[in-house]
Automatic annotation (TrEMBL):
Entry-linked NCBIfam families: serS
Origin species: Gordonia hirsuta DSM 44140 = NBRC 16056
Gene responsible for this protein: serS
Reaction catalysis annotation: tRNA(Sec) + L-serine + ATP = L-seryl-tRNA(Sec) + AMP + diphosphate + H(+); tRNA(Ser) + L-serine + ATP = L-seryl-tRNA(Ser) + AMP + diphosphate + H(+)
Protein name as annotated: Serine--tRNA ligase
Keywords assigned: Aminoacyl-tRNA synthetase, ATP-binding, Cytoplasm, Ligase, Nucleotide-binding, Protein biosynthesis
EC numbers, comma separated: 6.1.1.11
Gene Ontology annotations for the cellular component aspect, listed alphabetically: cytoplasm
Family: Belongs to the class-II aminoacyl-tRNA synthetase family. Type-1 seryl-tRNA synthetase subfamily.
Residues binding L-serine, per UniProt: 226-228, 257, 280, 377, 379
Protein location: Cytoplasm
Cited function: Catalyzes the attachment of serine to tRNA(Ser). Is also able to aminoacylate tRNA(Sec) with serine, to form the misacylated tRNA L-seryl-tRNA(Sec), which will be further converted into selenocysteinyl-tRNA(Sec).
Amino acid sequence: MIDLKIVRENPELVRDSQRARGEDPELVDRLLDADAVRRTAIGEADALRAEQKGLGKQVGKASGEEKAALLARGKDLAEQVKAAVARQNEAAQTFDHAYRAISNIIAPQTPPGGEDDFVVLEHVGTPREIADPRDHLELSESLGLIDMERGAKVSGSRFYFLTGPGAMLQLGLLNMAAAKATAAGYTMMIPPVLVRPEVMSGTGFLGAHAAEVYRLEEDDLYLVGTSEVPLAGYHSDEILDLSDGPKRYAGWSSCFRREAGSYGKDTRGIIRVHQFDKVEGFVYCKPEDAEAEHQRLLDFEKSMLAAIDVPYRVIDVAAGDLGSSAARKFDCEAWVPSQNTYRELTSTSNCTTFQARRLATRYRDENGKPQTAATLNGTLATTRWLVAILENHQQPDGSVILPDELATFTGFNVLQPN
């Protein structure tokens, strides 16, 4: 959730953010109305409770007809208090619904517009000239890395087996991410992949993208689409000690996405699948440190892309393509030769205080007063990276030569056709 003080004092800023996202600015007015009703209801209930408390003291001192009258008044007042509390609770629910409907306020630098309105910040590396490039699935099948047919037989479409050297390639990639993250000061975590509704909701994933989340209704648990979710919940309802700087974690988990609304898109291979593995960076920090931490996450992602030696570009994602919790997001998109275009490999978001406010994650300022923390997340490695690795390092004979740094984690540097 955003800071309610900002909504009250500068509602036009929030309306402008909603417009930039392509979302309804009138949600701001609904929130302000709900806030006013809630505050009035709280005041009325408090006043009646205070009167009820004062009446109780009077009853103890009264006698005879006066006491009988006070008791009658007390009975009537109890009914009024009960009704006022009911109105307060209803107003609170309406307010909470209106509050949670508003996305994070975008950063001033975030480009307005939709999915195609991103700004390219830089290009790194130059795509190789590859005559008639094979796509990652053709390469993978000839190299014995991926079995889509049996994945579909066992689990349905958009599932797969990583086999033999394919499994070792992914493990090597993720191990490299884990080793580099640990060296960079991140604490490695293997979190749960099932979370409670309040944690999933707290991260903002049960809004516009709720249809993409798998839910186990009988247990009232959700399968995570990224370890950002359990890591965001890790310090919920806590007051952190950030006096020595940000807390940085790297979560390794399987991830699950229904890919609702993406039917017909990227159905070939492993670009868009229902299950994949990922190492995700997650940071808790003071709000004033969030922008620097965002750049730090981006720099780490760039160091990982350098280790797999693929050409890529960095984009500043437009407001309409941000998740509800992000104020600003950078994507790194790698060149995919078979598609003759760039495709997303990493994403890093500055969520400011949006998630931490929902999850009640705070820290103490220099005066010892609790303040809402900021959270950030970023992709450090994931299954989709195999697409860029295989296609960019393919050789004319159908083999793939791995970059040296990655090869040290896989135990081999060449993949040969079967």
